Amino acid sequence: MRIFVAGGTGVVGRPLVRALVSHGHQVTASTHRADSMPVVADLGAQPVVMNGLDDDAVRRAVLDSAPEVIINQVTSLAAPAHDYRSWIALTNRLRREGTAILMSAARDAGARRVIAQSASFMTEPVGAGPTDESSPLYLDGPEPLRSHARANHAAEEQVTGMPGIEGVVLRYGFLYGAGTAIGPGGDIATAVQAGEMPIAGDGAGRYPFLHVDDAVSATVQAVSRGAAGIYNVVDDEPAAQADWLPYLAELLGAPAPRRLPEEQIEERFGVQAVYYGNQLRAAGNARAKAQLALTLAYPSWRLGFKEVFAQNT
Question: Is pTM, for the whole model, over 0.85?
Answer without folding.
Answer: yes
